[in-house]
Structures are given as structure tokens and as C-alpha cells.
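Internal ticket - ligand job 783, magnesium ion:
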Amino acid sequence: MRLFTPYYLGANAANFSERSGVINIAIEGFIIISALGYALFTIFSGSAIVGLVMAVLISVSFSLLFSLFVIKLKINQIVAGVGFNLLMAGLAKFLIVFLFQSSSNTPRFNSLPNIFFLESIPYLGKVLSDYIILFSFALVFISNFVLFKTKFGLRLRSVGENPEAGESLGIKVRLYKLYGVIICGFLASLGGIWLASNQNSFSDGMIAGRGYIAIAAMIIGKWKPVNIFIACMMFAFFEALEISLQISGTFIPSQIVQMLPYMITLLVLIGFIGKTKPPAADGIPY
Amino acid sequence: MNIIEFSNISKKFGNLKANDNISFAVRKNSVHCIVGENGAGKSTLMKILFGSYRQDSGIMKVNGSDVSFNSPLDAIANGIGMLHQHFMLIEDFTVMENVILGSEKTLNIKIDFEESERVLKEYIKKYNLDLNLNKKISELSISEQQKVEILKLLYRNSEIIIFDEPTAVLSPIEVLEFFKIIFQFKVEGKTIILITHKLNEVREISDYVSVLRRGKLVYETEKDILDLKVLSREIVGNVEIQDENTGFDYEGEPEVIAGLNNINLSVNKISVLNNLDLKLKKGEVYGICGVEGNGQNEVINILFGLEKNFTGKLNIFTDKISLVPDDRLKKGMIKEFSVGENLIIKKKECHYISNKCLKKTAEETISKYDVRMPDINAPMESLSGGNQQKVIIAREIELGNDLLIFSHPTRGVDIAASAFIHSTILQQKKKGKSILLVSSDLDEILKLSDRLGVISKGRIVAEFDRNQYNLQNEVEKTILLESIGKLMIGITGEQKN
Ligand SMILES: Nc1ncnc2c1ncn2[C@@H]1O[C@H](COP(=O)(O)OP(=O)(O)O)[C@@H](O)[C@H]1O
Ligand SMILES: [Mg+2]
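stdout (C-alpha cells):
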């Protein structure tokens, strides 16, 4: 169940961006850079809180930079996204080598503080005491409320569906796209921070395409927070299954076990979901 | 009193003067029509008034004081509302969401859906709009979508309402409904600016008329001295309008080229065609008139081979069929492709796209069909509606097919181009082609068809012969029109549900 957290944060991040009409595959990069940012600032300051704040700031700044490219300069969103992801992965590797003379990972560092008195609860303690996990569960309601019940959400969605119509009613289209991308940067950073904090170390390649899986979950969830929740739970379940199968050791070759989550995704996509419809103006610069 | 005054408004797009020194005034509580050909600059002027564009020079006054709008918000704040030529609706939103967007009523941080619903239901009742607030736009018909746009204006308390070609997409009965709403607005003291191509509508509804031609204001008139002949001459300038419809009769044998017999079709368990009979003959224009959505599209799809799940008998004695579809932007062309590419896309002679082949085809077409465009490499979407339509018609006719289907061939097309299209259709008839004309413009059907069928609820409920409606007597004509109108909405013969 804990594995669910980064997926759901990432998928909601992607959703806020796409609802405003910006396809943002750069969330993979945002997750990488915020995980790394958390690692570096926690190591150098000794405080996980400083690491958290800095990681959020870094990710949000990068999302501003991304907005500059795709909203202001109207660079193709997929190209910009892929560029960002390559850049972030390269930057992470470079910094690890440069700062720690290690080819793959940082030294160990602290996790975020927990709600300590909840930790002792049997079974659920680990989940209930983690702020970010709790937040990601609350996000089902928060996202749904913001997107569908508030003025902000209505306008954000209008901009992703038909920007001309929004504009004709006086809505500042690019501003709302900017909001979408910034929220995306913020939520993605929480995902990265959680991953780093949980492993107590940042290693090259540790994000392992979780950003892309989050995007897949968003699509399977048809851009709706509740459905995305179910999709992420499914991914997390199969990933957990994969891990436990690997640990317990079975006659099934491990490569096949590792494929499991992805195969299931494909099957679900083909079999149950049917046609999905993105926001009408998704990916089109304005 | 003048509620709006334009003085010396000019606006250029690149080198093109879309508005050239336009000055005129709109009187409070009047219906002011603005007419002119496609590309005359009507929409541009209205977008300036609505704050979407900014004039390069000139002054605008609203209620006596100078205004300068930076965005539609400023115009909305001044009580101006606009119904755009292309609807500004979000397909995936509900009616309610579309209407409140941008002017949401809130309760704390939540949108106050209950209060909005209450307010909107009042308007719906008052203006008889008959809308379901919770339906998505994608589930609505064109005329319902227009009602949503009207509801948007009402919700924003607009006092000055601009309608940009609102009737182009409506059937005659829907136009009457729409006019009722306009009259109600007028009774309430609102001011209406209406852009239209249809002169009989101008006669029916306008108090004042301004004519734009090539960006300039060329003529103004008013209700009491309105002369439609003068008006149409002023609209087109000194261009000759071909409007001679006689002498196009086909002299050969009128063999049957297609027959539909007892056709039934259901889509999603709803019956759309209901024992439909129809015969198309060589050298004859058959017109189908009716309220949109009564099975017209399905008839076309069956003839064209797009729809196969029907029961009944279909006999077609040719496989050479051309279709000029109703929605040219979506169906008839690839709007991002160039004019030349759109012209040769169906041609069998051009095996690979050579410049020579492109150029030859395009040049022939330009001169023969009088298409006006910058050059053959311009993207199709940059042409005006009338010229786009001519390109599509040219392509379909040049294929030399035996059965030609025209669906709303002059929708949103200006007077001169419409007249050209009409005479092109008649020439094809003379050559012995069989022509099926589907249109919601009754005048067009009466003008061109040799026989006409009224379609209602998936069935041809009555047929008329040219002799029956080519009447000189105005009274008889009015009676005929009225009875066709009634047949269209299914008042006689069948029960209305
Ligand atoms: N945004 C624009 N950019 C460039 N040219 C435009 C633009 N809008 C309109 N035009 C051109 O200005 C002229 C007037 O257009 P418009 O006002 O839409 O005419 P109308 O509404 O009378 O048919 C046309 O030639 C059109 O191609
Ligand atoms: Mg126009």
C-alpha cells in the first residue's frame, strides 16, 4: 500500500497539468530532481525538513522553467518533456559522481520525521505515521474537490478543453496553464521526496520510470482522481506482488515476474477501459 | 439615443485592411443588422467592439463615453455580450458549467451550484429555452447549443447583444423561435446587433441596416425605406450575380438511377428511418427539406455506402457517386492541406503528386469555378467559406460521377458564391446527372429542385412536383410554404409526440 504513494502523487501531478492542456511527461524529471534535491540538502544541512523545503522549491522552479518553454515559447511539449527528463537524469548522475565520488549512489541520510505516536499501531503504523502517505490519500478528495467543485478547477479544466472559449469569457488562459504546471511540479516533488526519504539514499536510476507509470495510471484512470486512485492501487499491488514473489523465489523466471505490472496494465487497457478521452485541447500550445 | 458609436475604426491584418475607416452608430433598443459578403470585415468589427481585438485607429463610444477594451472582460463589464459565429462552448462540460464559467457564483471556496441552478432555471423558463442544465454540450443539437450561448448572455446581464451569423445553422422553424427571443429582448429594452447573410431575415427583423464591403461601410438604410434589391447590389458591389435558373432542363430519358424502398434503420435502438421511399432520376434535382436530424444524414450515408445496417431495398444503378458534405471543415476536406492537395486527393490520374499535375488541376479549377485564393499552396483553412466550398464542389463534380449529393451546399456561403454554386448544380442537371439536394434552406430547395420531398421522423411524408410549387401567385405560395412548414414539424398526417 505504501508503494501506491509515489504513483498517486505523480499521477495527480500529471493530471493537473493535462487538465490545463499541458502534456507533461517531464514529471519523471521532476521526481528525479526533487529526490536528488532532498538527498543533497538533507545530507549537507543534516535536516530532513530543509531537504523537503528545498526539494519542493527546486521542483517548482523547474516547473516554472518548463512552463517558460512550453507555454511562453510554445515548444513542443513532448520534446521539451523528453529533454527535461534526459537532462535531469544526466544531472543527477553527474552530481553524484562529482560530489560523492561514487558511481551510483549518495551516502545514507535521514528520513522525514513521522507522526511518532502512531508508529506503534500494528500493521498500519508505517502508513498512518507518514505525512506524505496520509496526504496522498487525502489527495483523492482534495483533487476531486478542487477540479470539480471550485471556480479554480472549472477554469483550469476549461483551459484544457477549449482555450478560445475560456478566453472569450475573460479567463487568462496562459496563467491557468501555468498554475496547472506549477501544481504538477509541487505534487511530483512530494513523490520524489517520499521515494528518497524511504530509501535513505539516492541512487542513479532509482526512479525507474515511475513518472511514466504515473502518467499511464492517469490515462487508465481517465483523468479522474477517483479512477486514478484505483489504477494506482492496482499498480502498487502488482509491484508488491512482484517484490514478494522475487523474495520468496518461485519457479517463474524473475524477468517475467518483473514484467507483471506492465503486462497487467496492457491487459487492463485493452480489456476493460475501452476508449479514453483526454482533455480536448491537451498538448496544443495556446 | 445612440448606444454605440464607431468613428473611423480601422484594423489591419498584415496588409489586409479588414476594417477601413468605419463610422456608424447603433441606436439604443433597436435591432441593427450588419450585412456583407464573407470576408467583408463584419466579425472583425464586432470582435473589436467585444474587446477580442483592438482597433489600429478610431474611437468607440458606448453609452456616450469613450471606451477602450483590453479584453472581453471589459466589454462584458460594459453590458456587452457576443454570440460568436463559431460557438465558444466546451463539449465535455455540462450546460451549467459552460454558462457559469468565468462568472461563477461562489459560496466560500465552493461554486454555488444550487444558486446558479435557481437563477438559470428562471431564465430558461422566462425565455422558453427548454434546456437541461446537466447535459453535456456534446449531447446537444446545434440549435440547443445556440440556446446555451444565449443563456450565457442572459446570465451575464448583457444589455447590448451581438449575434454573429446566428441563423446560418438553423432550420426555418428554429429561425422563427430564435426571432421570438430577439423580439423579447427588444421588448425588454436590450439592443441587438445581428450579422446575417439572409436578406429576407433582414427584412423581417431589422430596424437599421449597415452594409460592409471589403472592410468599408458602403451603405446604410432603415426599416421603412428598405429595398432588398438595392441592398443586395450594395452587398456585392458591381459583381454580376448569376441568378438565371431557367433553361437548364435535361433533354434525355429520365431513367431511375437510385431507388430506396421501404428503408428502416435504427441506431442504438432508436428508429431513425421509418419506411422511407425515395427515387432519384437522371437529369433531375431532388430536394429533401426538413428539420435537421430527421434522417437526412442517414439517407445520404446509405446512398454513399457509409451505412449498411438498414433493412429494405436499395437499388443503385451506378457506383459513381459524389458527396459534398454538410460540415466542410470536418468532412469534405483536410483543412491543413493545401488547396492543390485537396483538389487532387481523389483523382486517379495523379499517381504520385507531381507539381505539374497539381498545377494543371488547380489552374483549371480556379478559372472554371472562380475560386479566389492567394495560391494553390495556401492551406485550405485560409480560404473563406465560400471558396472552400467551391473547391470541394469542383473536386466532386470533376470526378464526372453520375449521382451527385449536395448537403447544405451554401450554408454560411455569401450571396455571389451561393448563386454560382446554384448555377453549377443546375448545369450538372442539364448534363443528365442525378442530383440529391439536402438543405434546411427552403428557398434554396424551391429554387433548384424538380421534385421535393419533405422528411419528418425518418420518412418522406409528402412529395411535390415543380409544377405544384412554381407558383406566381404570392397567396398560393404562402399557403404552400406554410403547409410544407407544418409537414416538416410533423403536424399534419402524423401525431406530434
Ligand atoms: N485573425 C486574423 N488574422 C488574419 N486575417 C484575418 C483574421 N481575422 C479575419 N481576417 C481576415 O480579415 C477579413 C475580414 O474577416 P471577417 O471580419 O471575419 O469577415 P466577415 O465576418 O465579414 O466574413 C478576411 O479577409 C479575413 O480573412
Ligand atoms: Mg464572420
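Auto-summary: The domain at 267-320+401-488 of chain B is CATH 3.40.50.300 (Rossmann fold). Residues 493-497 of chain B have pLDDT under 50 and may be disordered.
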